[in-house]
Amino acid sequence: KAKSPATKKPSAATEVKSNLDVTVDEFQQSIVRHLHVSLGTDENKANSKAWWTATCAAVNELVFERATQTQKTHYKKDTRAVHYLSLEFLMGRLLKNNLTNVGLTEIAQQALDKLGLDFHKICEEEPDLALGNGGLGRLAACYVDSLATLDFPAIGYGIHYEHGLFTQAFLEGRQVERPDSWREYGNPWEICRPESVQEIPLYGYVETKYDDKGQIHKEWHPGRIIKGVPWDIPVVGYGAKTVNILRLWESRASDFFNWDVFNAGGYLDAQVENVQAETISKVLYPNDNTDAGKELRLIQQYFFCACSIKDIVRRYKRAHGDDWSKFAEQVVMQLNDTHPAIAIPEMMRILVDRAELKWDQAWTICQKVFAYTNHTLLPEALEKWSVRLFEKVLPRHLEIIYEINSRFLEDVVEVAFPGDDSVKRKLSIIEEGHEKMVRMGNLSVIGSFKVNGVAEIHSKLVKKDLFPEFNSLWPDKFTNVTNGVTPRRWLKSCNPKLSNLISEHVDADWPVHLNKLSKLADLATDSKFQKAYMQIKLENKIELAKVIKELTGVEVDPTALFDIQIKRLHEYKRQQLNLIHIMALYRRLLQNPDYDMPKRVFIFGAKAAPGYYMAKEIIYAINKVADKVNNDERIKDKLKIVFLPNYRVSLAEKMIPAADVSEQISLAGKEASGTGNMKLALNGAVTIGTLDGANIEIAEEAGEDNVVIFGLTVDEVKELKSAGYNPWDYYYANNEIKAVLDWFDCDYFTPGKPGELAEIKRSLLDYGDTYLSLADFASYSEAHKKIDKLFQDEKTWAKMAIMNTATMGKFNSDRSILDYVQNIWNLDTCDIK
Ligand code: NBY
Hints:
It catalyses: [(1->4)-alpha-D-glucosyl](n) + phosphate = [(1->4)-alpha-D-glucosyl](n-1) + alpha-D-glucose 1-phosphate. This protein is α/β, with parallel strands linked by helices.
């Protein structure tokens, strides 16, 4: 095996200087002490899981003190803070990340070494904190990392799901889901805060009362009270100065409320109520980009927003008493999509019904407090709740929404568009129809002072296609903040070899000043650097090949081109386009065994929402085609296909450093931004992509020589659709398309079961090919031919890979956070001593 010039020990300068003075011996003692004291076991009995727990406890000892110090300082200085409200935080594993951020990776490694333990094996014991679905949840996790790193006062609010995103296995090629239990035997990173419990009302009815002066008062008589129990997870900034917290609410039955039931002799009934209350935080809804419209989901949304607002108000009152005049100066709440939009009427309820402010005064405050991030244009993902359901669960909030709406329609819309009923119909929070619906997008726009999209093109489409009338009413409200990813997790910690090489050539603070990677551009054609860089890529591919072998039994050649598509399974993301192209390659190899292409390995990772039929069919089809191709000796291993089960953050950390090619092939106009595209490019993968989401900005940064762009543009998609798209035209015009799709009709890939994959063909022809896979096929195929040529030219490929790493500085989530701070949040940093 070639000896890598990059595998030498990192110099001290590359490690962030920790201000936590801990020696290897002290850390080792701390681990052992926790093994004894916290876990009640000893060195002889402890298994790997116990060692992992003890190591986390040793880290926590250092971190919790910092967290307390941070909270104290924020309180003393009475700082303005951002409150990031999100139904999802996809945190992944925390041990390695927290060690990276406190600068103790080496110390911990050596301490475990001295105990005769393997650091990496211990890290593998950690379950992922998978409290999210995909991009939106992972973005929230990157943002809390950046907020702490940049020393901004911030708190993340979410739900303490008992079960995060399901785990995925394949049974004869089909996805099966099992519950995820990340805290079955407790999780060392969280602390319960019973002193901050909140009580949350639900259901019931509203009573209208008049006081002596004839003033109306509304009193909500809830049908149920639910207890919200906060769990805090420390969020360690890089350099470990600021440690913010992520506060997750768990639902419980309220004892207080249950007394009545108990006293009435209803011991068993009370237990039933407990089960119902605890159901609220039981499980994460596994949909991405589709709205399920379920009652429990609405309750989840309200439950965590109400708990969070009570928490925010309690903290504010501690400093300012009943004086509401400073509230909007101290508090900003960012809505991560419309999922927490119910926070807007809840805030109004607190101000009007509880604090007894005048409506106008309350609304003025509200409109200075909320800002809303839109993450999708897909119509099926735009949240709507039936008025009927709202009335049942949150009767007072429905009234408040009607009030917000009628004032908005009279005072704003009527003034700007006098007499225009069609505009009113579009802008109304209430959608009229056979079932009246509450539109959470309109509520969010009306209640927020800023609305942002997540990539340039997406933000333009938010203005032009999604909210055009709102945009003409309030042009200054709409803005863009292009997404970013934390380079601490997505380069420094997941790709240590490349990180060390980088640190030999650029300042050691590149993990916070990622633009410094641009210096690597000077080395992109330096053959010594190219060799070192590509050697690391090869070593990462060797590591991934081992993982592939373990998880699927398939052997892959690490020198082959590793082509990776990792993201949720969704038709708009077009895994099916990737599949039909792979089948076309297979067919070319069968027809001509000398067909000129480098050895290729196509690697997938994706979960399908359990109720998304077509997504599951696509998974099955990929697995079936993989079975056939991987065992076909005629093509002499030139083509391999692997679908790694249970794609998640910790698996992404192993796949991304090993990618040669990054598949970003959504239909133009459908992917709001993408963030996997940034992580892959940062680690030196060449993007094959459409002009969609952040791909456009990635291409601008990397330069057109260093990405491969194909397919229809947003405007061309619109044109083709309005001209009337007919997929059959492409089927009859392109022999390869026809042959590949016809393959689905027979039993070539499903021996003895002809037509088992035919749904794929039907979706691409009979059901209209909604995402234009056939229209983009030829262009995609040409793009891959170009990739093949480039990859076979080692120097060119090395240059392209290096240029990708060198130019991704813009996509640091620190930059995104600074954009939010400057254009939306208006925060000051706060030094923690
Ligand atoms: O947010 C993703 C976008 O698809 C992606 O382009 C973007 O980069 C990322 C971060 O901005 N959206 C996303 O992940 N959405 C969801 O996961 C999601 C989850 C639940 C629901 C809707 C969307 N829901 O309605 O229940």
